[in-house]
Design goal:
CATH class: Alpha Beta
Strand order of the largest sheet: 4-3-2-1-5-6-7
Distance between the termini: 42 Å
Order of helices and strands: EHEHEEHEHEHEHH
Number of helices: 7
CATH topology: Rossmann fold
CATH architecture: 3-Layer(aba) Sandwich
Number of strands: 7
Helix content: 40-55%
Radius of gyration: 17 Å
Largest sheet: 7 strands, parallel
Structural class: alpha/beta
């Protein structure tokens, strides 16, 4: 099964050696599976780690980066394909279009935005691809708890937390992608969303 896997992650250079090691392990694991990497195009932080490791292990790597960020995030010119965009919206759209699955490593507000957007699109039935949160060191635990809280208060469909998988290591992440099967039809998802958002529900 040949897949293109989109990885969202931090561009900060202040990330710990432990998280850098996880990102590099993920890059090597994607290559070992024969999968391609799609990512944000940078050479810094966890982005740089996952991309360089994937490249060194023989994976096809596509980087997508806006012109405005190419200097700040130091575009990794050695990737198999580097796509420069005019806007962040164009960047995210291209990453989405080119990907069969999504993995989310620890990251800042930009990574959080990417996770929430791709999860929202899945909830609304625009796609039914795997979303795997690699919860290294419990980083994403508060976010996962917030999803449960939304359901508890009637602000989201009960199915929301099940729209993603949370793993604690790279092996579990690869297994989650490999074993993923679409869970429901688009109509079922929309029915649940409308039931939650309907007045008086």
């Amino acid at each position: 099964m040949s897949l293109s896997v989109c990885v969202y992650c931090a561009s900060s250079e202040l990330v710990s050696p432990e998280l850098r090691a996880v990102a590099a392990e993920l890059g090597r694991a994607l290559a070992a599976e024969g999968w391609s990497l799609v990512y944000g195009g940078g050479n810094v932080g966890l982005m740089g780690e996952v991309a360089r490791a994937a490249l060194e292990a023989g994976a096809h790597v596509t980087g997508v980066i806006p012109h405005r960020l190419a200097d700040r995030e130091i575009a990794l010119e050695d990737v198999t394909e580097l796509v420069r965009t005019e806007t962040m919206r164009e960047r995210k759209g291209l990453m989405d279009d080119r990907s069969d699955a999504f993995v989310v490593l620890p990251g800042g507000i930009g990574t959080l935005e990417e996770l929430v957007e791709i999860l929202t699109l899945k909830q609304l039935g625009y796609h039914d691809r795997a979303i795997v949160v690699l919860d290294a060191g419990g980083y994403w635990d508060p976010f996962l708890a917030q999803l449960d809280r939304m359901v508890e208060l009637g602000l989201a469909a009960a199915s929301l937390p099940s729209l993603l998988d949370a793993t604690h290591d790279v092996a579990g992440t690869v297994a989650a992608i490999r074993g993923y099967r679409p869970r429901r039809g688009t109509g079922d998802v929309m029915d649940e969303v409308e039931a939650v958002e309907a007045p008086g529900s």
